[in-house]
Structure formats: structure tokens, C-alpha cells
Specification:
- By secondary structure, this protein is of the alpha+beta class.
- Helix content is 44%, strand content 23%.
- It contains 6 helices and 6 strands; from the N terminus they run αααββαββαββα.
- The strands form 2 sheets. Strands 3-4-6-5 form a 4-stranded antiparallel sheet. It has a two-stranded antiparallel sheet with strand order 1-2.
- The chain is elongated.
Length: 155
């Protein structure tokens, strides 16, 4: 059901100028898909939909084609995974500790992930601050990185 709904969402945003989640919800319902606002919000995140400005000054949803959806799910032998020592969060900030002189490389991987919930990053020598839109996004991002680290350790 989720994959079918995702395909329908992509079709709808290609054929309509969808400006709000409510509008997307109405279009989905008109096509026989019933989803809550929370589900639609997750779908937007999962599909990496972004809002862009039209020539007429209206922001509408479109698919971000600048990076694959799972850019941070790199192979276990990647510089990214070998460089992270720890991940923690406080409020809407995620702190990533790396081995010495590796923060810049890891920060680049985070920046290239093009995750819309990330507002910005700052890297030092071995520490990265990632500012996310909400505490919820920070918790999810932190958990995602910890899961990637766990997978790397099991290899």
C-alpha cells in the first residue's frame, strides 16, 4: 500500500501544482487513497519532496533529484562509517564525534545527503554540529546514524 501511495504522490505532484499537505491529502482521497496528515508528512520526507518557488511566486512540492534518498547509507568500509566515534543529540542539535581531522569529510557526507530536515552543519577538527528543524527530526537522525554505526560494527 505504501509503495502504491508513494507512486500516486509522485504522479500527483508531477501533474498538479501541490502547495500544501492538505491539498495533497485531498488529491489522494480523490484517487482512493486515504491517509492521515502524519502519514502524508512521513511520505513527503521518505520521498524527499521539497518545496520550490514557481515563476509566479508560489511554493509547490517537487521531487528532489540532487541526491539519492539514502545517501548516508554508505558501505561499511566508507570514510564516513570508519570516521564516526559517537553520535548524541540535545534538543534539535545532533553532535557527531569523529576521529581527529575527519569531521570535515563526515560533514560533507551529511551535507550531501540533502535531507530537508537539516538546516545546517558546522565541522571542527573532530566534532560536527548538525542543526535540525525540530527535536523530533534530531532524534530520528541520531537514531539513523547510530543504526548505521551498529551495522558497520557487525561487519
Amino acid at each position: 500500500m505504501k509503495a502504491t501511495r508513494h507512486a500516486k504522490i509522485l504522479e500527483l505532484i508531477q501533474n498538479h501544482t501541490v502547495t500544501t499537505q492538505e491539498e495533497l491529502q485531498s488529491l489522494l482521497e480523490a484517487n482512493g487513497f486515504y491517509a492521515t496528515q502524519a502519514t502524508i508528512s512521513r511520505d513527503i520526507r521518505d520521498l524527499r519532496l521539497v518545496k520550490v518557488l514557481s515563476p509566479s511566486g508560489i511554493y509547490y512540492y517537487t521531487q528532489s533529484n540532487t541526491a539519492p534518498a539514502d545517501t548516508l547509507q554508505l558501505s561499511g568500509d566508507s570514510v564516513f562509517m570508519r570516521s564516526i566515534r559517537s553520535v548524541d543529540c540535545a534538543g534539535n542539535i545532533v553532535v557527531i564525534k569523529t576521529h581527529s581531522a575527519m569531521a570535515s569529510a563526515v560533514c560533507e557526507a551529511v551535507d550531501n545527503s540533502n535531507r530537508p530536515e537539516i538546516l545546517g552543519t558546522i565541522a571542527g577538527e573532530n566534532t560536527i554540529f548538525v542543526l535540525l528543524k525540530t527535536e523530533h527530526f534530531a532524534d530520528e537522525f541520531c537514531a539513523h546514524l547510530r543504526e548505521l554505526m551498529k551495522k558497520n560494527l557487525s561487519r
